[in-house]
Amino acid sequence: MVTKVSLKVLYIISLGHSGSTLLGNILDSHSKCIHAGELISPVTKKRRLVCMECIDDPCPIWGSLITQKDLEKNYSDFVGKDIISKAYKLLPLRRKNIIYDRILYAYPAKSVLIDSSKNISWSKYNVNNCKKKFQYRFIFLKRDVKAVFASYKRGYNQNVGDRLPYLNKSISKINDFYRSLSAELKVAVSYDELVEKPEGSLKHICDFLNLSYESDMLNFESMPHHICGGNQSGVIQKGTKKAKKLDSLIDFKTSADQLSYYSNLKGIKKDERWKSELTQEEKRNIDNTVTGFDF
Predict the structure, then answer these.
(1) Which of 24, 66, 217, 274 has a C-alpha 20 to 30 A away from that of 158?
(2) Distance CA 192, CA 260 (A)
């Protein structure tokens, strides 16, 4: 059994739609890692707590080990609120974090818990709340912003003029946070390198976490991933009925294009739909306007 001091919580920090669910699930396939998903989602959005693996079947973690009530009690300051607009340091640290404890102590073979919430304030609040209990590490995941925007456009019908100010502000915050951390606490990962040369990227991450590389991570699709929130690609690959059932549970509607794309997706494959989906004007606007990452 691992000792408390050796347990790590790994946060994935990135823009939304950058591949954090993919990366989390790949790492989840390592014998020492467990991916919890986007823990922020059922709290701030008050979205029903659903396991993306089990859907409406009993889950060993979500709904049993941890319930919606547990999450809302643990993060009562954030329930139904946009955490991005709240100053984490102004919130009282009233209680210990029971969520990470329950998951890691229920799975003694695991030494790394992955939280892919992506939100900086969320991670800072959790670190301050239980920094004496776990080690903390951060993966900074970057992706071409044109691909990120295309995903927002595809899923939420947003136009580039409305979205760019938010993306620039988010990138600036990510850059500031990256610079604030010492080298031993962070590692930078490129989405393109992850999907084009996954073995090299994963070996780099494993070295960062002091873990041995395991080739089973490349076969992540063959393993169950009990996560809450995040990209629905894994659900869609299990069949249209599963995807529609999930939609009904979380009050969401997966588009026909998404169903078609992910139903036929196998393995680690680079998503380049943005190249045909964005207009030349949109591409130029993004290239000329968006701030770059510092890593």
Answers:
(1) 24
(2) 23
pLDDT digits 0-9 by tens, 8-43: 999 999 999 999 999 999 999 999 999 999 988 888
How far, in Å, CA of 212 to CA of 219, rounded? 16
Cβ-based neighbours of 264, under 8 Å, separated by 6 or more: none
Tens of pLDDT, residue by residue over 105-145, are: 899 999 999 999 999 988 988 888 777 789 999 999 999 99
What is the third-level CATH fold of 4-231+265-289?
Answer: Rossmann fold (3.40.50)
Are 78 and 72 in contact by the 8 Å Cβ rule? The answer is no
* Among the listed residues 253, 4, 252, the one whose alpha carbon sits nearest the alpha carbon of residue 104: 4
5: Cβ–Cβ under 8 A, 6 or more apart, which residues? 135
Q: Read off the DSSP letter of residue 134.
A: S
The pTM of this model reads 0.90
